[in-house]
Structures are given as structure tokens and as C-alpha cells.
Amino acid sequence: MKEQKLVSGMRPTGKLHIGHYKGVIENWVKLQEEYSCYYFVADWHAMTTKFDNTESLRQDKINVVTDWLACGIDPNKSFVYIQSDIPEIAKLHILLSMITPNNWVERDPTLKDMIKMIKSGEEKNNSSQLSYGLLGYPVLMSADIMAFNASFVPVGVDQLAHLEITRDIARRFNNIYKVELFNEPLPKMTQVPLLKGIDGQKMGKSFRNDIKISDDEETTTKKVMQAITDRSRLRKSDLGHPDNCEVVYEYYKVFADRETVETVYSECQKGKRGCADCKRMLAKIINNKFSPIRERRFELSKRPEYIKEILKAGKEKARPVAQEVLERVNNIVGISL
Ligand code: TRP
Ligand code: SF4
Question: What is the largest CA-CA distance in the chain?
Fold first, then answer.
């Protein structure tokens, strides 16, 4: 029996891209062997910024889970569920919000960044209004983790500030009520750096520069062919600078074997490799890598009812764990009679 619990969630932002795969999902798949893993779709978190734009929410939730399963998240090994299917998370969120000092959330740098993005219109939100719920983002995240009293949380660097607050809240709860109930969950960082989009900017759906896990071979090839390369190079015989080729060469480093990466490096430097050929070869490598995942995804996408069954079973497995934690919390705080 895997004893230590690990919780991680993702906001349903549509179909996942290959950066998500490399940066997050591949790691999640591995962690399943070692930990008792709770993987969930953070639909309430999605609403902290997209409260006025929910028409795709239902389909986005199904799509994210379809991607997870295709990539190897195994519902027989892990708990796979939707956040809003576990009402105990909301109940815990209310209690935690009572003991969380205002200034802890107000100074959260990740939250400050989100607020900046909304105000600047970069993050899609029709009203650009900031809500009370958004301020509670890190508290809700703490409830996600503490409802299962997890010990570990695999997250990227951008989420560390939130997790720091979770640790503070867990400690504060234990101090106020003089108990040793909650663990102070530790981050589990992913090793792989974030992949850039084909234009060299941050990869993301809203920037239209991402390659989706679910893209077909043709689309993938077309996108890779558009990628930027060493800009100082005009023709094949020009000596190249792979280190300045921040998309194509970086992708090689992530997706190709070492020998191939070394060949690309030396051929490019010596002017023996054209960028078009180089990209065509990269597209092939990416397509090969994702072909089994895409096949599985295609089969799963025809069975949304099956995905819903998985989520229902996940809820039925996960909820009793959260119920038990909540019962203890309510006893400690004095909520239950
Ligand atoms: N905030 C996370 C993100 O945007 C998603 C998330 C919500 C999460 N609750 C969580 C991650 C709990 C880990 C644990 O990526
Ligand atoms: Fe980049 Fe390949 Fe062109 Fe070199 S040959 S600049 S590595 S795309």
C-alpha cells in the first residue's frame, strides 16, 4: 500500500499541449507508482477568472481528463476526479478562510501576477473585474490539498507561492487548535524546463503558438515548420548557432535522443544542415512520440460517457477520504455537536 498522499490539480483550459505533457503529465504518470495520487480538475479555480465565460467549461473538463488518460494517468492507480464533486473541499475552504490573515493572500506574488494579467486584458475575462473568489485562490488551493491531508504537491515554480501559503495555513490551524492534524505539504518540482511556443514566446492556447497533444500529424508538422530558428541564418551554408535556436533546438533536446541532438548541433554549426530539413525531422520525432498517445486519445474521445464513469468512480473513491478529514476538523473546531 502506497502510504504517502500527493495531490495535484489543473484548471480546465481546453486541450493540453505538449508543454503540459513534458512539464507536468509525464511526471504525474511516474509518480503514480510511488504515491497515492489524487489528480483533479480544478473547475472552481477556473471560475475565479472565467466566471463570465463558462460555456466551454463542461467540454473543457472532459477534454482535460481525456488527455490525462491518453497520456497514461491510470484511474486504477490514482484518484481522478472533479474538484466540485467533492463538497468537503468547499466546506474546508470556508473554515480555512476564517483563519487566513488577509495580508497573506494579498501579498501572494502569483496572485498578484494573475491580477496584473486580468487588468491588462491578457487573461481572457470579459469584465476584467476582480472577484472576492479570486482573492481566495490560494486558500481554495489549500483546501484541495488539506482535504486529503497530502504530504506532497507536484507543481511548477509559478505555484510555489501558493503552496507556501498552504503550509502557513496548515501550521496555523495546528497552532490555533493545538493539534497535530495537518501535514505541511512539500512541493515536488518537475525537472524539465517549460517548453516555449513555436514563436519563442510562452506556450499557451491564448497565444496560438502551441502544439496540442491531440493535434494530428499534419497539423503538428505545419506548426513545427513555422517555428522560429537562429535568425542570423539565411541559407543552409551559413554557419548556424543552435544555442540561439531557442525553439527547434530546444525541442530536440527534449524529444530526441542524445546522439541525434549531438548530430543536429554539429551539422548546424558547420552549415551542413538546412533549417527546413531540420524542422521536418523534428516534426517526425514529435509525431512518433505522440502517435500512441494520440491513438488512445482518439478512441477515448469517442466515449465521453466512459470518461464520466471514470470521474464518478473517482469521486466515490476520493470523497470518503475527504469526509474523514472534515469530520476530524469539525470536531476539533467545535462545529459538530
Ligand atoms: N493553481 C494550479 C494551477 O493553476 C491548479 C491547482 C488548483 C492545484 N488546486 C491545486 C495544483 C492543488 C496543485 C494542488 O496550475
Ligand atoms: Fe535550428 Fe536546426 Fe536551423 Fe540549426 S539547423 S538553426 S538547430 S533549425
Answer: 80
